[in-house]
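note to self: the first set is below, dont mix up w the second
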Amino acid sequence: MIRLAALGAVQVFRDGVEVDLDRRPQLMLALLLARAGQTVGVNELIDLLWGTDPPVNAVNMVRRHVGVIRRAFEPGLPFRAAGSWLAGVPGGYRLRAGPDTADVLEFRALAERASTAPTPALAVPDWVAALSLWRGRYAQGLARSGSLPAAFAAVDEERAAAALAAAQAALRAGAATAVLPLVRAVAEANPLDESLAAGVIQLLTADGRVTAVADWYRRTRDALDEHLGVPPGPALAAAYQQVTEALEPAAPVAVPPSATPPEQLPADLRLFGGRRVEMAALTAALSQFAGTAGVIAIDGIPGVGKSTLAVHWAHSVEDRFPDGRLFANLRGYAPTGEPADPHDVLAGFLDALGVPPAAVPPDTPSRAALFRQMAAGCRLLVVLDNARDIEQVRPLMPGSVGSLVLITSRTRFGGLSTREGAMLLALDLPGIDDAREDLRRRAGTQGGYSDQDLDRIVAYCGRLPLAVAVVAARARGRVGGIAGLLAELEGSRDSLDAFDDDALGGVRAVFSWSYRRLSPQAARLFRLLPLQTGSDSAPPLLASLAAEPRSAIDPLIRELLRTRLISEPRPGRFGQHDLLAVYAAELSAEIDTAAEREQAADRVLDHYTQALNTMNMRHLDPVVRTIDTLPMPGVEPLDFPDSRSALDWLRGELENLSGAWADQFARGRSPWWTIADAFPAYNRLRVAVDLERPAEMALAAARRTGDRMAEGHLRIELAWLAGQDQRDDEMRTGLEAALAIFEELGAGVEQALAQLQLAMSHALAEPPDYAGATPFYERALRLFRDHNHEAGITAALVGLGRCQLELGRTEQGVTTLTEALERNLGRRRLYHAAAEFWHIGTAGHRADAIDFLLMARRLYADGGSVFWEMKTGLALAEAYFEADRRWDALAAWRQANDRFRVVAEGGETPTGLREQFARLGERLRPTAAAVESGVEFNSGGKADAP
């Protein structure tokens, strides 16, 4: 990815890393950027580099510099190849770049959009974004002393013109604070520009910083006198005079008081019900604003009932605001037109307060000042409904003690909480009881609906109040009764048709008001979100879903959060309301091609496939892996610093991964390799049973398509799942069938894997059959050695060594396990090395058993295996007890028992372990009692003599 910067020092970034360029290529690049899309002649480049004294080989040197620039963009570009960025055209060169790759072009695009915005309030954010791109003068530091290329000066003039336009828009929109620092910086870089100086003076005045005006005027006047020998012109003088006159004491505006307090609140909803908690919270907030000007901002997803709640609560407290109730629909998310301009809203407020039209000031800041003057000493309730952003509401806030501003928006106004101390109320979906009562009240009682019927309807509505209102309107007087209504809702699960209503606007229409505000990239992510396979997802998955770089996904998520088209049910995880997901799917079916949707769904599965592959390859290191595909375009594989973090990630993604498999099966595909390679991690998390159903489905698909390799691996996985459920005969049958398949295919490594699994089925039987397991381990070891398969060799050595120990061949067993240990430690397979430490530590009554068990427990804990950390801890406690180290035994037993509780809470009660814990706990009871009574123990774990 290339990023070109010239609004300041000239810089080239390739994949986020700056590329070094000498001065002359930088100069050429700056000129090409200033004239991007146009031909820059060779003679122009020569004049730029050498002026009137070019060298004889100037043309060749220009070509050489062109090559340097091209290879800065594309390092592997062959000599004299044109590449993708800098094209040679008749007479010169032309740079191919766009707003996404060059800051000067991004500046021009933003300035163009701002200059064509329908209202000043909408223009200001683009002007701010455009001016924020500047870091100094254009191509700063490259021009020769006393000489500035005309093309560079022209871009600097574009900046000055943009600053002047930004100042005018901000003054009109009442947003001086937003642009003042940016305009001031441009004016400081152009000290002789009187128009900019006048703009700064006007912004300072509007921002209430009138004391700084005189200093700014004097510095501009002195600069004009020093450099040009002229006094300030009419525009600058007039701007300064207007401020000085405003600073003189003036009589208050004579406005006759209104005969009656204004009453602009819309009618209350007669059928309003529920929201008792929210109503109480709003009322409680009034007491917090005693002696101050209160502000409450309610935000929530589209259709959640923000406006209805605000109006109903406003009516319930209207007697506390005897001087009037003002209301404005700010149309921040309106179906048509643009958001309301505060300039026009203030005119309406002033009219309601009795200000004659002739006395209404012409500019927004003056209107806001007059509104505050009129509100002084009054207790007003101002309801600002459907606000777009903070800048839209700030001029409409009276600021008088005893007044209250109540705002509703799909945007969360954190800035109001910081600066104005506003109470922020995030309006969530109503509870099931409130939603049912709302539906009952709206639908009437003639239908005789039971609570169960109403709850089913509410569930179809996703508890969204707007959807409930639409359905209730349909239910009133319905001929088909409740059965017909439920049948209609059931039939429209994948559509919003049942929630359309001409009078209420319908759910689809209300959602569209937010959707139309999105950028193209955020809109595309929103449309694809129903393809996420869980209730919520983390940003890396959303990046894969949309094929966006990780660095680009966070701004899109924030944009969707601002418009409340997604929510954040858990920190760092994002989801959609069910009806919003239906709406997004409808849009995607209309806008996106079937191939695009198919690829997005495939990227979701590949996101998990590659994560499992990374987890296995770098941390879990199973004997055999089946995933061998490279990531799909648009999927950036996750990385994990250690096995614990990898397993923690998977624990949070189990629902989504199961959903991804189900989605693939529904599409007629079989993700068998992902299911097979998930077993090591699922087994480590003790949730391997969750793999049984998807593995059975994948096996059926493999048999149907004749994929014998897939069938063999899946039979092994299902066999192990059967073994964990004590279905030993089924386990052996499955493993033998897998071995036969691999022998038929001539797959040596897979044959060794089946032999290894058959060996383990004997060794882990109840009671263990170590003699029966040994020949299988020996055959597996031989096959793995034949194929130089290191992971298989060590796994077979561990099993064989354990059998040898249990069969009384202690020296041979320790030798075998030591070889496995050396292999694992040499490859830093530390978790796997834990097994060797465990086996040696539990082999007979070794004097060094405690040391081996301590190491095993540490490695199992680091690897995130709670079960084996617990089991090794219990063995360690017994070893301490046998060594008469009672205090150490008690500490190890308590730690292991804590881990046992974790395992048991997960639904497992391992056979025999509970009794084993109880037996040792009983033997340690005297030690525990002594510890509690304060007896001190010596370093050997024995009680000191009294």
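second set (the one i keep forgetting abt)
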Amino acid sequence: MLRVNLTFKTFIAVFSLLIISWKASGQKPPLSLWYRFPAKEWIEALPVGNGTLGAMVFGGTGTDRLQLNDITVWSGDPQPAADRKDAYKFLDTIRTAIRQERYKAAQELTARFMTSSAPYYSSYQTLGDIFLHYKDAVGAASSYRRWLDIEEAISGVAFDQSGTRYTRETFSSAPNSVLVHHIKATGHTPITVSILLHRKERSQTRFEAPNKLVMTGNTGATLDFEVQLAVVTDGIISGSGDSITVRNSRELTVYVTAGTSYILDYDKGFKGELPHEKVARQLQQAMGIGYNRLKARHVADYKAFFNRVRINLGAAADSLPTDERLKNYGDGKKDPGFAALFYQYGRYLLISSSRPGNLLPSNSQGLWGDGFDLPWKCDYKSNINYQMNYWPAEPTNLGELHEPMIRLTTALVAPGSKTAKAYFGPDTPGWYYGYTTNGWGWTSPGAALPWGVFAGGSGWACQHLWEHYAFGRDTNYLKKIYPVLKGAAEFYLATMITDNEGHLVPSPSTSPENNFITDSKQKGNVTEGATMEKAIIWDLFDNVAMAGTILHTDEAFRKQVTAARDNISPLRIGKEGQLEEWNRDWDLNTDDPHHRHVSHLFPLHPGHQVTVFKTPELADAAKKTLELRGDDGTGWSIAWKENFWARLRNGDHAHRLLSYQLRPTKQLKTIMADAGGTYPNLFDAHPPFQIDGNFGAVSGITEMLLQSQETYTTNDGTYAYVIDILPALPAAWPNGSVKGLRARGGFEVNINWSNGRLTSFSIRSANGEPCKIRTTVPVIFTESITKGVTTPGYYIYEIQAQKGKTYKAASSTMKNS
């Protein structure tokens, strides 16, 4: 028998050559989006990004376009005077009107005095465009393939024309802060191409011999930007103005670096140094490294994140192009692998738009946006999309990518302290912000109701600061962010009032973008104690109290915040069995029964106040609310409902909503109800595009397979987590596996199932903490495990885990555990 011994390096080299050959031949990579035609519209183009610098790749044959973005390119300027001066002086008048049930007057007063005093005009913007105009090649292109390999974060194009095979690859490197576009011709006709670097507003481009274009400009008085583009080729280069022409080339590489003067520093007005030197240095370094080494570094860096999670949900119809798979998806039973692709694509988008070094987090379009006044300003809406963007970060093993959001939230303390005093009194402690924030640290309320006066933004954002600890269990990190959590809690402690029943409530209070109708037919949107806001405050107080216990600090404050948490107005069940949205049983009076926001189910998800096992009556009420609201909605609304139904342990219903989301659409018009779907490039449609739907779907699928929000009290007075294995597995995924998911408490989990039944799993403890494990079938561990109390149809096992140890289990045929 012939033996062949290959070193690991040799194997990797051979494997890499096979992959390169595979792509060059126009075949699709193993885990990819792919198409048989170039993108005609932006929603067909494919995104690449390194967290900060991104592009949408169109893949045209005669003319190609790379639409560029930098995560810090914001129009406008900081607006420190947007807080309404002396607004707090009218607070008691508003609260009195609410208490007297004069809701029209309360709404008018709130709109007049509790909104911002300045227009909100800043928007995330495009950085510009690179256009490539190809010449000499004649005839129609054939054997065309365009792809995005999400295992390597490389977009590619391959086609035949004029007896020549043309291939292109595009990637955005995080290690070297450079966008790379590589072009190769194999055959009779060399490459002749004109490369144009352009931005329609406030910019100028110049050619610098021998091979460089430099574009400089600004978006206003605060932000300056610079883009540098250089070409390395075996051909002949010439240039002038805003373009470079390459002739008689067989291979060329375009290197692009960019930067801005932006810094995340409120005290310095967010304006730093001009980016020229940094951008020029990055370009020279990238050119010195060269295309092949840059690509290898990029792939290795990206895979260090992406490869942490592997998921198999069943057969994949990947012989079909992605747009056809989307059209054919239907109920998902014939192509369950498409759901896995959509899942990993969402992880790809997060890795590509939110690296640990980002100055700003992933926004409402991630990193990608074409235009100068993008939909909803493409900012960080605190009543859902800012948070939903980061729901997948921790459970899908991308915890470091949470850091830009945590950094921005922390940066809001200074402006948020000022806003708190303006609207709630000069002696108000702590900080808060309302319905949105942006690159300029906006913390003021919005300009109008019902969306602008939302007081839950800071509390909800702080949940993410806590969740980063809950999954990672780093007490040094917890010490650093504890003052931010405490400051948010101090604000709510100081500003809540006592209702007629003696409970604490926020006032004035709203439920995002919704209205109520009272039994006396008054229509309004301002009340006291709206469910979402009081649930957010409950969640914050609970987390702050636990943080104090874990850190053994601030005992007096801990007691204060715990007492306040326990006295917050309780969640209530209405006459139809629903969870009430307002402070009264008005839900059935609505003229919009299918409103896209179901915000008052926050305590079910992403909160942990309502669970199926601990609060079954409230869980049933949440289910009734979802039934009343219906399944359809905007893209992000459908995604949130996937998470709700998963938390209710109804996997089939959650999967039905995923099928709703994976409906093909090209709708670009803003539609606020029942128009959600997915664009050809798998961007989520609100419509138009909002990336939170993509990230919300990743979270929803994860919640079907693994949950860990439920807690129990440990002997030391803190709490540990219940890790729920396959809590909501849908029938459409009878066979599958997932590896590398994370659970709260510092655990990593692998799961296998067959015929709709758990077959085995393993759980690794990073920190050596206790946990309970819940399964739907009895299992046998390889280690001695404490068996807990079982509930009908569920089995409980308790582990006092050792640090770094993996615990394995397989299903048992025993009837009892």
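remember for set 2: The radius of gyration is 27 Å.
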